[in-house]
């Protein structure tokens, strides 16, 4: 189970997840319904940065790891407050 730090300030959401058993990775997600900006950073490298308009969910997918590989999916959405779901290898492991 990933370690998570979650901050929600109205429509702004920031979350930080640590995943992996032997090979640790940090996934940072920030989303704002007010500015419509989404940013996903993995181990300090920006994986996604874009304007996400509307309240419909949008999915961001990527693979991480060298010896311990994982398929990661981050789903961003929300109507009143921004929310994020983190899936690792097809299993939901965190929600912010």
Concise structural overview:
The chain is 0% helix and 65% strand. The chain has 96 residues and is mostly beta strands.
What is the total tally of β strands?
9
CATH level 3 topology: Lipocalin
Write the element-wise H/E pattern from the N-terminal end onward. Answer: EEEEEEEEE
User: Major beta sheet, specifics?
Assistant: 5 strands, antiparallel
Q: Count every helix, treating DSSP H or I runs of 4 or more residues as helices.
A: 0
**Strand order of the biggest β-sheet:** 1-2-3-4-5
Category by helix and strand content: mainly beta
Number of domains: 1
**For the record, what CATH class applies?**
Mainly Beta
Could you report the average pLDDT, rounded to the nearest whole number?
83
Roughly how many Å apart are the termini?
Answer: 14 Å
Which residues form runs of ≥5 with pLDDT under 50?
none
* Beta-strand content estimate: over 45%
In the CATH hierarchy, the architecture is Beta Barrel
Helix percentage = under 10%
What sort of overall outline do the alpha carbons produce when their principal axes are compared? elongated
Radius of gyration over all CA atoms, rounded:
13 Å
């Amino acid at each position: 189970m990933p370690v998570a730090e979650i901050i929600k300030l109205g429509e702004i959401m920031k979350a930080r997840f640590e995943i992996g058993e032997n090979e640790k990775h940090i996934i940072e997600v920030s989303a704002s319904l007010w500015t419509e900006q989404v940013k996903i950073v993995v181990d300090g490298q920006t994986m996604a940065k874009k304007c996400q308009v509307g309240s419909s969910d949008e999915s961001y997918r990527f693979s991480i790891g060298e010896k311990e590989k994982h398929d990661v999916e981050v789903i961003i959405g929300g109507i009143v407050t921004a929310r994020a779901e983190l899936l690792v290898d097809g299993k939901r492991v965190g929600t912010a």
